[in-house]
Design a protein that fits this description.
The protein is about 65% helix and about 0% strand. The protein has 21 helices and four strands. The strands form two sheets. Strands 1-4 form a two-stranded antiparallel sheet. Strands 2-3 form a two-stranded antiparallel ribbon. The longest helix has 29 residues. The protein is elongated. The two termini are about 55 Å apart.
């Protein structure tokens, strides 16, 4: 008797759906998740708000004995509230000090000699690279470039994992994340920082996509939601760890090393991480597939019938789908458009709240801790909501609630930071649950052949929304 196309699936059933081997594999896939949230949100704590003003040390040439207050009073204009302007200064003149004191200065210009940060206690991205005034937009641009890296990573590592295998792509992604994550701590220029962040973003996408594929290809269908949910919870715990790390380490370079270097400990994966048996069979590497299946069965204390194993034949790899396949049929086209909008809105709300943790008015470390903690019940609660109310109603209600909360936050006065933060935390809960719903909903709506194509399109919508 010859095995049908699902032959490897029958053998995996004999191996066991969720035995010790699969549990060990899921544990291996969870470890990198703790570092992913660090790279996603660490920059928020590396660009703290710092009072600043133009560097006006030019006046020291004619007034070396001036006090700091006298120097600022002579060289900086004041705003309507009487505070020193942060982004402009009086134009330097070739006068003696008595003339400057007698006649004063009137002409102003932008800061030409850099900035001074009187209260800065530890080096930050803001103070080292002067991310203020005309350069303050570089902070948002660098975060967008990181998201662009995630999009590029999904386009590169997704097809690469189909060609090279799950295991080598995971190892390459972990290596890139560790190498460029640590290298960021030594960059001399902000342009180099942004370029390295782009590579880290690509590696994060590679790890996320490939580890999920490896786990789902070994774990039985009924246990896959638990595996995915657990990885999402580890991402939330990583956010809480980030709050603690950033509270204890204020030097941005040391913080970057502390969050990036531990990933090198995962290089024991070279010896313990198995390849996907399904991928090996599709690629015709039958002997390797047999060995890894027998090893899994041994760990699970199960036995694969020899006749079942011997009849294992290469499976025909289905023709890959294309982007056009998502729009050829009316029903699939409708699903694609609806889910595209859903993912865009999810990303807009989730990252809109997560990346504004410094603007809610309360302690950013406690707010980040709360934002991470609230994701755990959101992920777990999502499973029950889906069982009780179904996919469609759950998705619609969560999206509506997320949008309403964001609209309410806009109307809250700035002198009510507690109310704003509480609403933002509730919004993070609904947005997180909505994200989890979208993962499950999308996997069920799209046929297997076009699911990878939708995955890349989803990443693009997520990047645009963020």
């Amino acid at each position: 008797m010859q095995l049908p196309m699902s032959g490897v699936g029958e053998i995996l059933k004999a191996v066991g759906d969720f035995g010790p081997f699969q549990k060990w594999l899921v544990l291996l896939t969870l470890l990198p998740c703790f570092s992913l949230s660090f790279h996603q949100f660490c920059q928020l704590f590396m660009v703290p708000h710092e009072p600043h003003h133009c560097n006006t040390s030019w006046i020291r040439a004619v007034g070396p004995n001036l006090t700091e207050e006298e120097q600022l009073n002579l060289t900086l204009p004041r705003d309507a509230d009487g505070a020193y302007e942060q982004c402009s200064m009086y134009s330097p003149v070739d006068w003696d000090l008595d003339s400057i004191v007698a006649y004063g200065l009137n002409a102003t210009e932008k800061c030409s000699s850099g900035w001074v940060y009187p209260s800065a206690q530890a080096p930050s991205l803001l103070t080292e690279f002067d991310l203020v005034c005309d350069r303050k937009d570089l902070n948002d641009i660098s975060q967008s470039i990181y998201m662009l890296g995630m999009f590029l990573g999904s386009m590169i590592f997704g097809p690469l994992s189909d060609r090279m295998g799950r295991r080598p792509v995971i190892l390459i992604s972990i290596f890139l994340q560790g190498l460029f994550g640590v290298a960021i701590a030594f960059v001399p220029h902000f342009d180099v920082y942004m370029a390295f962040r782009c590579v880290v973003g690509a590696s994060v996408a590679g790890i996320t996509m490939t580890i999920l594929a490896l786990a789902t290809e070994w774990v039985g269908v009924s246990h896959r939601p638990k595996a995915v949910l657990t990885s999402h919870c580890c991402f939330a715990i990583g956010q809480m760890i980030l709050a603690g790390l950033s509270y204890g380490i204020h030097n941005w370079r040391l913080l970057q090393i502390a969050g990036s270097a531990p990933v090198f400990a995962l290089f024991f994966y070279i010896w313990v991480l198995p390849e996907s048996a399904r991928w090996l069979v599709i690629k015709g590497r039958i002997e390797e597939a047999k060995k890894v299946l027998q090893k899994a069965a041994s760990i699970n204390k199960r036995t694969i019938p020899p006749e079942l194993l011997e009849q294992l034949k290469p499976e025909t790899q289905p023709k890959p789908g294309s982007t056009l396949d998502l729009f050829r049929k009316k029903h699939l086209r409708k699903v694609t458009l609806v889910m595209t909008c859903t993912w865009f809105v999810n990303s807009l709300v989730y990252y809109g709240l997560s990346l504004n943790v410094t603007n809610f008015g309360l302690d950013i470390y406690l707010t980040q801790l709360a934002f991470g903690a609230v994701e755990i019940p959101a992920r777990v609660g999502c499973i029950f909501m889906l069982q009780w109310f179904g996919r469609k109603k759950t998705q619609a209600v969560l999206l509506i609630l997320s949008g309403l909360i964001c609209l309410i936050i806009i109307g809250i006065p700035e002198d009510q930071p507690m109310v704003t933060t509480v609403l933002a935390t509730i919004g993070k809960f609904t947005a997180t649950a909505s994200f989890s719903t979208s993962y499950i909903y999308s996997a069920e709506l799209f046929p297997t052949v076009v699911r990878p194509v939708w995955g890349c399109a989803r990443c693009r919508r997520g990047w645009q929304g963020s």
